[in-house]
Design brief:
- The complex is a heterotrimer of chains A (179), B (308) and C (150).
- With 179 residues, chain A is an alpha/beta fold.
- Chain B has one domain.
- Chain B contains ten helices and no strands.
- In chain C, strands 2-1-3-4-5 form a five-stranded parallel beta sheet, sandwiched between helices.
- Chain C is globular.
- Helices cover 41% and strands 15% of the residues of chain C.
- In chain C, helix 1 runs antiparallel to helix 6.
- The longest helix of chain C has 15 residues.
- Chain C is α/β, with parallel strands linked by helices.
- Chain C has a single domain, classed as Rossmann fold (3-Layer(aba) Sandwich), CATH 3.40.50.12280.
- Classes of the chains: A alpha/beta (179), B mainly alpha (308), C alpha/beta (150).
- Chains in contact: A-B, A-C, B-C.
- Chains B and C meet through helix 2 of B and helix 1 and strand 2 of C.
């Protein structure tokens, strides 16, 4: 649900412009190209290729990744930081509904491993070919398929039932052999 | 001597050493607090700790082996009590010693460490088993130099293995007044630091905080017995060192004063070494005792044999 | 016998050992608890020390709003503490979960969690975010008076 801006409307200048130009055809649209900040949307079919190019650039690292629940699906944002230049370039990939699939970059960028697990836990984005998709931050008693950071999840009303209490010892405390 | 007399001596010595050990524990905590610019606990604090622990419930984990778990602190306390009785009897009544009581005392003072290993292994807790394995390695490391320097002192005192004989042989001059004696006392103080489970060698006990690691599953009266054992060890070890290296107790007024001064000096050394050093890892401790102190102990033994 | 019990209660008041449990706090309250051991406040002069095992403890200092993950573990730790013990709920989060009470990851409140395994638990509350060390010392002093009436 992004407003379509054509590439030619935003001039690709400066360091951010160089980075986005090196990505070439994978960039579907550029939303912002400042001196220190760049936002661009990536073709979902070329996610891994873009990740390989970004990680190979000098001075680049994956700072973090965020997920946004938008009307068409889950928007996965990868924030690439260039520390020597003080620049952050954000690349957006849409995991389109209904099965919310996007290619995982964890095989290329090991830093994305846990971030993608967290996005799967909290938003339900499915990452194809992720090497280790286990539950990361929700607790063991949380049911599968309930994603708490979705916009249609009510934080109080939709909360799953609490985990069961530990069994208190049934012998009176004076002669107790606790476990 | 008859059983009633022996029992009286034992009870008096054990109870007295326990009280004295708890006071020494307070001295340790108070000096530590002052060194850290704090106020520190009042004088009855360790006694209050022991009384409080005796009244709490004694929890035993379901994964623990009951017999070893509950017997270990009792046996440790009993062994330390008997060692204290033998030492005080030797110091105050030198005629009542028997041949080989030095070896008996050394053996009895190893029992608390053995019981720590037994109790920790019976706890059924991974922290405790790590603590037990470290305690085993620690024992292997500090017992060797200790026994070598005690042998050096025995050699200088004319090869008597009787505490009364050691004290008598030092009437002409304690073992300390010789090169081998000085070396032996320094090594013995460091071994005492390890046996008492004090920093820098307390890697077995203070793993998580003050008393964890080997004692993590103990509570209530069992924990109180461990506390009392450690307090009594703090009272007994300087006494052993004074008897073997520094001439024992001379029952005259300047002699008693000198004895008290030596005692306080040794306890103060323990506290000061404890407050000024970080904790060593287990491999650093082993290297320190085996490759640092044991050669020095052998040197001290050779010097003692040569008569220096 | 009553005299021994009196003596024991006085000893308990003079020698409270504290075990600190963090059930999902931001660590601010934990830092304030640790500050109590520094020379400025020094609770060791009251006989209170921090111990490394809940089995050695008389006071469970609980900080943090109890998250779903921490709930069964807090109950386990409470059951492992040798009774009689006092639970000290420190900070707004431990009292009533504060501003986080509507979060999806919140479990039951600390006092409800503990009362689920022991309805007769003794719980003391120290409000503040974080509570000042003076407030915690005042709670400790009131706790000492409380254990004398057990």
């Amino acid at each position: 649900m992004t407003v379509a801006l054509s590439k030619t409307e935003i001039p690709l200048t400066g360091f951010v412009g160089q980075v986005l130009q090196r990505l070439g055809e994978a960039v579907v649209e550029v939303e912002k190209c400042d001196r220190r900040r760049g936002f661009a949307r990536i073709d979902p079919a070329r996610t891994v290729e873009v990740a390989e190019k970004m990680i190979a650039m000098e001075g680049c690292r994956l700072a973090t990744a965020t997920g946004v629940d938008v009307r068409d699906g889950i928007d996965v944002l990868y924030h690439w930081a260039f520390e020597p230049q003080g620049v952050v370039v954000t690349l957006k990939v849409l995991a389109a509904g209904p099965d919310l699939q996007v290619e995982s970059i964890a095989n290329v960028v090991p830093a994305a491993n846990w971030i993608e697990r967290e996005m799967h836990d909290l938003l339900g984005a499915n990452f194809r070919n992720h090497p280790d998709m286990r539950r990361l931050i929700l607790d063991d008693s949380w049911p599968e398929g309930v994603y708490p950071l979705r916009k249609d999840f009510d934080q109080v009303a939709d909360r799953p039932p609490l985990p069961p209490n530990q069994t208190p010892p049934d012998v009176p405390p004076e002669k107790r052999q606790a476990e | 001597m008859d059983v009633a007399w022996m029992l009286t001596v034992f009870i008096a010595a054990a109870a007295g050493t326990l009280l004295w050990g708890l006071v020494l524990k307070w001295v340790d905590r108070k000096v530590t607090a002052r060194v850290q610019w704090r106020v520190g606990p009042p004088v009855y604090q360790p006694i209050a700790d022991v009384i409080k622990l005796m009244g709490k419930e004694n929890l035993m984990p379901s994964t623990a082996r009951g017999t070893g778990f509950l017997l270990a602190p009792v046996i440790a306390l009993a062994a330390t009590g008997v060692a204290a009785a033998i030492l005080w009897a030797a110091v105050l009544m030198p005629g009542t010693t028997f041949l080989g009581d030095l070896i008996v005392v050394i053996y009895l003072l190893i029992v608390p460490a053995l019981m720590t290993i037994l109790g920790a292994s019976s706890s059924g807790n991974p922290h405790a088993s790590v603590g037990a394995s470290r305690e085993m390695k620690l024992m292997l490391s500090y017992e060797l130099p200790m026994i070598i320097v005690i042998l050096a002192a025995v050699a200088r005192s004319g090869w008597t293995f009787q505490l009364g004989g050691l004290i008598a042989a030092q009437h002409s001059g304690p073992v300390l007044y010789s090169l081998s004696g000085v070396l032996s006392l320094i090594i013995a103080v460091l071994c005492m630091q390890a046996k008492l489970g004090q920093v820098p060698f307390d890697v077995a006990e203070a793993e998580c905080e003050i008393m964890s690691g080997v004692y993590v599953e103990y509570s209530g009266p069992s924990l109180a017995y461990w506390l009392m054992t450690r307090a009594m060890l703090l009272a007994v070890m300087p006494l052993l060192l004074i008897v073997v290296f520094w001439g024992g107790l001379d029952l005259s007024f300047p002699g008693v004063l000198a004895f008290a001064g030596k005692y306080v000096l040794l306890v103060a050394l323990v506290t000061l070494i404890r407050n000024t050093n970080p904790r060593l890892r287990i491999d650093q401790t082993l290297k320190f005792f085996w490759f640092g102190l044991t050669p020095l102990a052998i040197v001290a033994a050779v010097l003692a044999l040569a008569g220096v | 016998m009553a005299l021994l019990r009196e003596l024991w209660k006085r000893a308990l008041a003079k020698s409270l050992w504290v075990y600190h449990v963090n059930t999902g706090a931001c660590n601010n309250c934990d830092i304030e608890v640790l500050e109590l051991l520094t020379p400025r406040y020094d609770i060791e002069r009251f006989g209170m020390i921090l111990v490394g095992s809940p089995r050695h403890a008389d006071v469970l200092a609980v900080t943090g709003s109890c998250t779903r993950q921490a709930m069964p573990r807090l109950q386990e730790v409470y059951m492992q503490t040798a009774k009689p013990c006092v639970v000290l709920a420190i900070g707004s989060c431990a009292l009533h979960q504060g501003i986080f009470c509507e979060g999806y990851h919140m479990g039951a409140k600390v006092d409800e969690t503990i009362k689920a395994v022991d309805p007769n638990a003794i719980i003391m509350y120290v409000p503040g975010c974080p509570p000042k060390p003076e407030a915690m010392i005042s709670a400790a002093a009131q706790g000492m008076e409380l254990v004398k009436t057990l």
